[in-house]
Amino acid sequence: MSVRVFALALLAVAGILAASPAGADTPQPLKAHTGPGFEIGLVDANGAAVKAIDAAGSYTFTIEDLSELHNFHLVGPGIDRATSIEGSGTETWTLELANGTYNYYCDPHATLMKGSFTVGPVTTPTTTTTSTTPTPPKPPQKLAAKVGPGSTIAFAARAKAGRTQITVRDLSSKNNFHLSGPGLNKKTTAAFKGTVTWTVSLKKGTYTFRSDTNPKLRGKTKVG
């Protein structure tokens, strides 16, 4: 091979490399948070709330889970992923988002803590069809309660009326968790330590949660 031909080959290779910019496949960063109160959200690298993403592709989610009573659950085309309810801390997910709508929420408080965003172009259906398939019943709202460790107690400040699944984490051998209100009176025992799940029907009104052994541990939940 002559020097001239070899030089032309090198220039061609350099041209191919220049045509592929570095970092073209770098996932775009997004930041999510849940807690410490009843807050949940998703923002972009500039801190703006994410409502619509122009194009499908690879995105990096940094999730700050700031409470042991909440979690961050993302559901959409090809994705169903969540942090744990009991744990807290920071997780990083690299996900391939497709065109469509994605919803995020806290599993125990899905009626209060939720959001959504779209990816790609939003299409409007041109025809409407009537389905004869009966609508399945709505799943129960999920709430989390906690007593202990130490002299602490926690439950949702607000909830919606209807069928509800309550996960109670009793971490104290001295205090218990007692929930009472319209049509409901359920409790753990003071000596019990562990996790129980109650499926109940909440009604409109005010419910009281407390420890029967420590009158200072109490609060109220408004159901609307």
Q: How would the blueprint of this fold be written?
A:
Elements lengths: L2 H17 L8 E7 L5 E5 L7 E2 L3 E9 L7 E4 L2 E4 L6 E9 L2 E6 L8 E6 L21 E7 L5 E2 L3 E2 L2 E9 L7 E4 L2 E4 L6 E9 L2 E7 L2 E10 L1
Parallel strand pairs: 1-4, 3-9, 10-13, 12-18
Antiparallel strand pairs: 1-2, 4-7, 5-6, 5-8, 8-9, 10-11, 13-16, 14-15, 14-17, 17-18
Provide mean pLDDT, rounded.
86
- How many helical stretches? 1
Order of the strands making up the biggest sheet:
3-9-8-5-6
Q: Calculate Rg over CA atoms.
A: 25 Å
Reported CATH architecture of the largest domain: Sandwich
Share of β-strand residues:
over 45%
The coarse overall form would be globular
How many β-strand stretches? 18
Task: Characterize the structure shown.
The protein has about 220 residues and is mainly beta. The protein folds into 2 domains: about 25-120, Cupredoxins -  blue copper proteins (Immunoglobulin-like), CATH 2.60.40.420; about 140-224, Sandwich (Immunoglobulin-like). It contains 1 helix and 18 strands. The protein has one helix at about 5-20, and strands at about 30-35, 40-45, 50-55, 55-65, 75, 80, 90-95, 100-105, 115-120, 140-145, 155, 160, 160-170, 180, 185, 195-200, 205-210, 215-224. It has a 5-stranded mixed β-sheet with strand order 3-9-8-5-6, with no helix packed on it. The chain has a 5-stranded mixed β-sheet with strand order 12-18-17-14-15, with no helix packed on it. Mean pLDDT is about 85; it is low at about 5-25.
